Automatic annotation (TrEMBL):
It comes from Hirsutella rhossiliensis. Residues 1-125 form the Alpha-type protein kinase domain. Keywords: ATP-binding, Kinase, Nucleotide-binding, Serine/threonine-protein kinase, Transferase. PANTHER family: ALPHA-TYPE PROTEIN KINASE DOMAIN-CONTAINING PROTEIN, EUKARYOTIC ELONGATION FACTOR 2 KINASE-RELATED. This is Alpha-kinase family domain-containing protein. It comes from the Eukaryota. One of its GO terms (molecular function) is ATP binding. It holds the Pfam family Alpha_kinase. InterPro entries: a-kinase_dom, Alpha-type_PK, Kinase-like_dom_sf.
Length: 125
C-alpha cells in the first residue's frame, strides 16, 4: 500500500531470510548439521529507527522510514507499528532487514514492546 501511493521515488522492500542447513557429513566439523538464518547482503547498511522510540533525524531517508512507521499505525487502525527499520538504499528501492512490529497486546515476541513504546515512537515522528 505504501509503495502504491508513490510517496517516494523508490519501492520499499523487505529482505526475506531463509534457513540454511549445513550437511551432516559425519565429520566433526562444528557447522555440520546446524541451521542458520541467512538473507541477501545489504550494501551501505544503516539504521533508520528503533523499536524503543529512537529515530535518526539527520537523514532524509530516515524521515521517510519514520513516515512509513507512522503510516503503518494509521493503516492498521492504530493496532500496529512497523519499526526498527534498517537496511540499504539502492537506485530503485530501499531494502529493509529484520523489522519489528509493535502491537497493543505484545503479540509479536520479545522485540514487541507494546503500545507504550509505539506511542513514544510516533511522538518522535
Amino acid at each position: 500500500m505504501f509503495n502504491q501511493l508513490r510517496i517516494v521515488n523508490k519501492a520499499v522492500k523487505i529482505n526475506v531470510p531463509q534457513v540454511w542447513r549445513f550437511e551432516d557429513d559425519g565429520s566433526s566439523d562444528e557447522w555440520s548439521g546446524q541451521r542458520h538464518l541467512c538473507e541477501p547482503f545489504i550494501q551501505d547498511y544503516q539504521k533508520f529507527n528503533s523499536n524503543s522510540g529512537w529515530s535518526d533525524d539527520s537523514d532524509a531517508w530516515a524521515e521517510v522510514m519514520q513516515a512509513l512507521s507512522h503510516f503503518s499505525y494509521h493503516l492498521s487502525g492504530g493496532n500496529y507499528v512497523l519499526c526498527d527499520l534498517q537496511g540499504g538504499i539502492y537506485q530503485h528501492e530501499v531494502v529493509l532487514s529484520d523489522p519489528v512490529i509493535l502491537s497493543r497486546n505484545r503479540e509479536y515476541g520479545v522485540t514487541d514492546l507494546g503500545s507504550d513504546w509505539y506511542q513514544l515512537l510516533l511522538q518522535s515522528a
